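Can't paste images in this forum, so I'm doing it all in text. The chain is below; anyone willing to post the predicted structure tokens underneath?
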Amino acid sequence: MQLNPSANFFERFASRATYATGSSTAFLLALLTIIIWVVTGPIFHYSDTWQLVINTGTTIITFLMVFLIQKSQNKDSLALQIKLNELIAVNSKASNRLLNVEDLTEEELRALHRFFGKLAERAKTEASLSESHSVEEAEDIHDEKVEVLKQRLSGRRNKQNERPAAKQPAAPTSKPTGKARPTNKKAG
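Text version of the structure:
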């Protein structure tokens, strides 16, 4: 999927800016700016201009960061939803009705939350919360996936071996006479 050049530029810029502003270096730079501003207070006699500089600077930075943070959260949320949808889609025991559950109304989400809350309560009474079977189950599921993959690959190989034989025309039953066969093509 190709984005237009300006959208592609903004994607790269937003990703880099979000990464950079979330770093320790960015925090230290912001802290250093505040320290310098506080130290210069007596020099400028704590004037209105001195206060306006920090107020204006922080307001502009905050305003721009709101959009960068929101874009980053939207992208992360979408990526997470796609990963969860993939897990639901490939799990034969999971309900496909939960694909794109984020598109439901708030009331529908609350109803699902209540339902899964009831399931969680039942699970608490049926088993110890300190026990986990997930590692063993994950290994079993992995083994099943490997077996299914082997079966798929084997099936594909068999289909590929069958295709060339099926595409070849049957051998003629009579000997060729060496004469060219007439064609029914109309001259155009």
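The chain is about 70% helix and 0% strand. The radius of gyration is 33 Å.
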